[in-house]
Amino acid sequence: MPSHRMPSEADIISTVEFNHTGELLATGDKGGRVVIFQREPESKNAPHSQGEYDVYSTFQSHEPEFDYLKSLEIEEKINKIKWLPQQNAAHSLLSTNDKTIKLWKITERDKRPEGYNLKDEEGKLKDLSTVTSLQVPVLKPMDLMVEVSPRRIFANGHTYHINSISVNSDCETYMSADDLRINLWHLAVTDRSFNIVDIKPANMEDLTEVITASEFHPHHCNLFVYSSSKGSLRLCDMRAAALCDKHSKLFEEPEDPSSRSFFSEIISSVSDVKFSHSGRYMLTRDYLTVKVWDLNMEARPIETYQVHDYLRSKLCSLYENDCIFDKFECAWNGSDSVIMTGAYNNFFRMFDRNSKRDVTLEASRESSKPRAVLKPRRVCIGGKRRRDDISVDSLDFAKKILHTAWHPAENIIAIAATNNLYIFQDKVNSDMH
Amino acid sequence: MEVQKEAQRIMTLSVWKMYHSRMQRGGLRLHRSLQLSLVMRSARELYLSAKVEALDLETPSTPTRCPPLSPEPMDTQEDEEEASPRAAETLARCSAHPARVGRKRRSSSLSNGVDAGLVPSKKARLEEKEEAEDASSEVPDRLLPPPAQAEGAFPNLARVLQRSFSGLLNRGPTAPPTAPPARDAKPVCRPADPVLSVLVRAVVAF
Question: Which InterPro entries match (chain B) (predicted)?
Answer without folding.
Answer: IER
